[in-house]
Specification:
By secondary structure, the protein is α+β, with helices and mostly antiparallel strands. The protein has two helices and five strands, in the order αβββαββ. The protein has one domain (about 10-135): 3-Layer(aba) Sandwich (Trna Endonuclease, Chain: A, domain 1), CATH 3.40.1350. The protein has helices at about 10-40, 90-105; strands spanning about 45-55, 55-65, 70-75, 115-125, 130-135. Helix content is about 35%, strand content about 30%. The chain is globular and about 45 Å long. The chain has a five-stranded mixed β-sheet with strand order 1-2-3-4-5.
Amino acid sequence: MAAAPVIGSGHARANQARVGRSRANQARARFAEDLVARWYVREGYAIIARNWRCPRGELDVVAWRGGVLAVCEVKARRTVAMGDPFEAVDARKILRLRRATAALLGTRDPSLPPVRQVRFDAAAVIGARIEVREGVA
C-alpha cells in the first residue's frame, strides 16, 4: 500500500519560489527604472517623479525638459524569450498612463512653468541594454 501524500508538502517550496521570483522581478524593475532615469538625465531632463501612484495607475518615470513632460513606461526583461517588451505597452496600458498623467497634472503647482507638451515614451531594458522609444502614444 502506498503512503498517503503529506498535505502541503510541495506548497511551501512553490510559495518560496514565487516570493523569490517576485523579489527578483522587483529588483529587475528597480534596476531598469534606474537605467531609464539616468538616460533621461543624460538627455538633459530633470526627473520629477518615479513610481508615482494614484487610483488611476502608476507612472514609472516622469521627466521634464523645456516645457515637455515625458512620461515613460518601463518594461524590463531578463531575455527576449518572453517576447518584445514593447508589446506589453498596449492600448489599455496607454489609456491608464494617460489617466494617471491627468491626475499627476491635477496635483501640479500652478506657479511652475507651463507644460507645453506631454509625451508618452516606452523603455525596454533587456539585461543591461536599454532602448527608449519616444512618442509611442
